[in-house]
Amino acid sequence: MADRDTPDTQMLIADMGRRARAAATVLAAMPSPAKAQALRAAAAAIRASQEAILAANAEDMAAGKANGLSDAMLDRLLLDPKRIEGMASGIEAVAGLEDPVGSVLDERTRPNGLVLRRVRVPIGVIGIIYESRPNVTADAGALCLMSGNAAILRGGSEAIRSNRAIHAALVQGLVQAGAPADAIQLVPVTDRAAVGAMLTAEGLIDMVVPRGGKSLVARVQAEARVPVLAHLDGINHSYVDRAADPAMAVALAVNAKMRRTGICGATETLLIDRGFADPKPILAALAEAGCELRGDAEVQALDPRVQPASDEDWDTEYLEAILSVKLVDGVEGAMAHIAAHGSHHTDAILTEDADTAARFLRGVDSAIVMWNASTQFADGGEFGLGAEIGISTGRLHARGPVALEGLTTYKWLVLGTGQARP
Questions:
Q1: pTM of this prediction?
Q2: For 134-155, how does the pLDDT look when each residue is reduced to its tens digit (9 = 90+)?
Q3: Which domains are seen in the chain, by residue range?
């Protein structure tokens, strides 16, 4: 079967892993200016390769349309000059970030004179498994390199031509700047066997980061024999409290859903306090912006354009212009709904009551919790972290937008002057 490991794919990933390990050893000792220069050279190569990248993407888009990809998936797949410039600028932004490798997290001196330092170090070899968005090839590669890690990238089959063109440009820039070509590798095959081989590559790959739909993440979590940094669904909520500013509520509800519906930071469920004075303008603004609204009978009574909601709607990441809407009993009702249906990604409260906001910020167990802001800000670039490798919805190692620091671990340095333990 196509998704079974075979000796060929296992040998392929093993060879890539060994070459990545050698490259990671070089990167771990590479000075920050040298890593930054390699990334700037890679960004220049991306810009110089724009024509080839756009031609490859056009082939992927044509194949995607022929294969019936959804509009949301096609939007994620699409590249244009603006998005290519965004990739190049994103790489340069990473090059300009402070390098976390070598930074001292804490230092203490024991009574016996031993000096203990906890220092950031690269994780080693990171495997990234992703779908649709070819910009991940550039973002993930840049973040891994700047944090001293080698990357093995396995993109989706729908973006294979685009990924190959982007990867070729990245490697060209790296080599020109003196960085190892194997610092960023792209799995050359599209069958699912390569995913299985990566997930069981103990000793070769130190951590796997899945970026994709629920089925991909579920497979990774079920089969992985290496640590996983998981990015689950973005079932995000915006809660309009009774003390929300009405104009702000309208503006942020529309922005949180409709600015770009296909990203993981988009709001998928709007919760409105039953004590809020008038929800109708919010629903009207969303409907007039082209959003399909779904709600129960109580919400349908507010606007005839609201469609009936099913039980599944509260647990759905639409990634398109569809929004479920529910009335709740205050902030406690909102938090109870989020606890039952959220994905621990991003949730926001809109209110002018600081005490209510504080209860929400403390009580919602999500990686990102916001007050009076659009959930569309759930992005590493907007957090000042540069490009992100993903938004971790777990509780261990890293949480929220994962950028340079999230791709490091630490070790203890113990400095003595001849101490022997009694």
A1: 0.83
A2: 999 999 999 999 999 999 999 9
A3: 7-230+394-414 (3.40.605.10), 236-377 (3.40.309.10)
Residue with tokens 């906890």: 118
pLDDT at residue 6 in the model: 55
In a 13 Å sphere around the CA of 233, the CA atoms on its Cβ side amount to 18
Q: How far apart are CA 258 and CA 320, in angstroms?
A: 8
Q: Where are the beta strands (DSSP E) in 234-358?
A: 236-240, 267-273, 292-295, 307-308, 322-328, 346-350
% of the chain with per-residue pLDDT over 70: 98
pLDDT tier, 221 (very low <50, low <70, confident <90, very high otherwise) = confident
Rounded to the nearest 10°, the torsion over CA 45, 51, 55, 56 is 0
Q: What are the helix (H) ranges across 29-70?
A: 32-48, 50-66
The span from the CA of 182 to the CA of 201, in Å, is 17
410: left (phi over 0), alpha (psi -120 to 50) or beta: beta
Query: Hey, what amino acid is at 73?
Result: M
The pLDDT, as a whole number, for residue 3 is 44
Q: Give the Cα separation of 114 and 413 in Å (integer).
A: 10
CB atoms near residue 410 (< 10 Å): 15
Give pLDDT, residue 7: 64
Long-range contacts for 23-26 (Cβ within 8 Å, ≥24 apart)?
A: 23/150, 23/180, 23/181, 23/182, 23/183, 24/122, 24/124, 24/125, 24/148, 24/149, 24/150, 24/183, 26/179, 26/180, 26/183
Find where tokens 């196509």 sit: 2
| 316 in Cβ contact with 214 (< 8 Å) | no
pLDDT value at residue 21: 98
- pLDDT tens for 41-65 read 999 999 999 999 999 999 999 999 9
- Quick count: other Cβ atoms within 10 Å of Cβ 349? 29
The total of other beta-carbon atoms located within 10 Å of residue 396's CB is 9
Flag whether pLDDT at 351 surpasses 70: yes
Q: What's the half-sphere exposure (Cβ side, CA atoms, 13 Å) at 172?
A: 13
Separation of alpha carbons 254 and 350, rounded Å: 13
Residues 241/273, Cβ–Cβ less than 8 Å: yes
pLDDT attached to residue 13: 96
